[in-house]
């Protein structure tokens, strides 16, 4: 269900009967935190503990977490707990003093990037990272114009909310922002997703220019997670990236969703498209629960901004953040989690694909690694989005104690994003319960 | 020394001879982190460990920390380390699920606020908090105009940087921003600081209106920390707050610097002025090294924004953040740290005041609790700011292993901000070494 604020899978009062404890907590939230907070699900869930791919409610019931991408290497990964506990007890100072953790981390992170990306800057959240990237892009290009996909989400600072159309119509887009259709492989008119997508970006560039606005940047999430999860065909980003560069703007890869091995074929989502960004932003899974984020970029793009504007983020790049992030990167690499995302992701995708023959509401199964999108339609030929059915499935799975959510402009794509440590057994559980829910919902 | 980016106490290459290890780390920072990062001091310091009011370099030398206000209850406070370690190992999920820590914290935090402040929203950084506060203020008032003091610092998102004049001339102020002179008790022309300050705000309001810009908000830091530390006379904020409200705008108290007991007379800096803000923002010391921040506010101010715009901050209000913040609030209250800030702050202020009779460069000693400002002048009668002497003192103290910094438009005010656990013995050390440095620098 999409609420008045455009949020998919939001709790809406009165949509379902609630137990007394849940109702009381919701009342407390309203009283203490006020009206801006939203919960997931028709019957919100209360968690008290997490471990690996599992979350537990106060009664000890286990929920299979196939959604939370902050805890990407598993809830409460012991190496991250150890790193944070140790460094919290040792030193928490910031980048105005010398400290080697930030340098060791930047060095190791940059080693995962393509040639040409030479600097790394620490922020605290993905929103911060995108906000900083915009400031850098506008300084470097001298332009203001921003191009995003039409259901994109990039963050919640005022600057970034102004180019995050998925926040809904009550959060206006900036006058310098243009949206383009997502690279929709399921509904492509010509079959050439890349050409269609590039044409959209070119049209947006012309429209900006027609209004006297110089394009500064094109930004997209490497897996188009809010637009509906579009992963292929690989390479479809090339034309769009070329177009923005020809217009004097830069390409920012928002890897908050698709980074750190999520897509299974590489460390970064943009890599599957064979493009090298000017700036790369990252966040959520970087510290597996500890707040840390950042921007990597080409030195020539950062040069003028750095010289003129300086940048200090009190919490960004503190010693604990760097140690937490190092523990995560180390775990991804030493535990073979990119490979697991690829292998288990393929296994899970095959399992869901097999359900399509049984359940006609499954219009398309797509995604890369452990980020899958399942398009729910009421008519396979017309490809008619079915948001109501999608809501029933998401809430049905919640009742079966499996956590997923939904996305897309029409709110009809299941968003399945398990931790990178997901196992085949856990994939089996997910597929089995999804099968049950689909049978019940039909 | 003020650099090209307007930063006080920034490291400038070539200003002093560096040892090989320091030079190598600085070269690594430039290579890996790029040009936007700045260090403190002519000879930057490398820390590896912190405990209480002390920081230690790799050789084991102890530095008395009279500057870092993130670690406000002391470096590596065991209760905070314990809370973060425990919760990191238990659960780190966000506010889209029910969790009681955020509610317990909001309840306890709101109990420290004056009547009328009824909601609390979690963010991750003080910049986030001010960015959110602007969005709320503009939504509530329908205005855009922002009034700040002329050397204010409120944060580093694009929106907030546009009203943070202390970032220097290379970061332009927004067309909707007006600056007013700080409430300078040392150079007041009439002796009525409050009336002068209110007149400045009224003039800014008229100028905004003359340009067709409706005032949305007046924001100030409760101790004017970047402007030069202005604490009194108590009550001087009243006229300014009245003026912005008459113009249809709101008053935002930025308590990132002055909050959580820092000023010694109350939990919040605004309280000494007998005013009740519409929104209160807070950050740095809230988690004593763990990234957590927030906005408290009047329910009627938050109502429309919350209903229309929703707000989700992935890391803001995660379970660990709430537990860290709870441990800090608990320590401030159970260890009597507000009282200690008042008592030890007065003792330290008296000690520095006593140095004024020996050292004519001390023009004024001011501040509240454990946030002191010492104005350095070359001529006491003319009150001529002496930035060069200020730099020598700050760096001289660093060589004596005492950490402070400097601030103010003319970069001539020593900024002394020890942790709230500071003892009389530590105050004695600071005064004794400051005396030595002042003798040497004169």
- Report the CATH topology name of the largest domain in chain A: Aspartate Aminotransferase, domain 2
Low-confidence stretches of chain A: none
Gyration radius of chain A (Cα, Å) is 21 Å
Spatial strand sequence of the major β-sheet of chain A:
4-10-9-8-7-5-6
Explained architecture:
The structure is a homodimer of 442-residue chains. Chain A is α/β, with parallel strands linked by helices and 442 residues long. Chain A has two domains: 20-73 and 337-441, Aspartate Aminotransferase, domain 1 (Alpha-Beta Complex), CATH 3.90.1150.10; 78-334, Type I PLP-dependent aspartate aminotransferase-like (Major domain) (Aspartate Aminotransferase, domain 2, 3-Layer(aba) Sandwich). Chain A contains twelve helices and 16 strands. In chain A, the strands form three sheets. In chain A, strands 4-10-9-8-7-5-6 form a seven-stranded mixed β-sheet, with helices on both faces. In chain A, strands 11, 12, 13, 15 and 16 form a five-stranded antiparallel β-sheet that branches. In chain A, a hairpin with a 2-residue loop joins β1 (49-51) and β2. In chain A, α4 (126-141) packs across α8, α6 (193-210) runs parallel beside α7 (238-246) and α10 runs parallel beside α12 (424-441). The longest helix of chain A is centred in the C-terminal third of the chain and has 19 residues, at 337-355. The radius of gyration of chain A is 21 Å and the shape is globular. The two termini of chain A are 17 Å apart. The model of chain A has no long low-confidence stretch (mean pLDDT 96). Chains A and B meet through α1, α2, α3, β4 and α4 of A and α1, α2, α3, β4 and α4 of B.
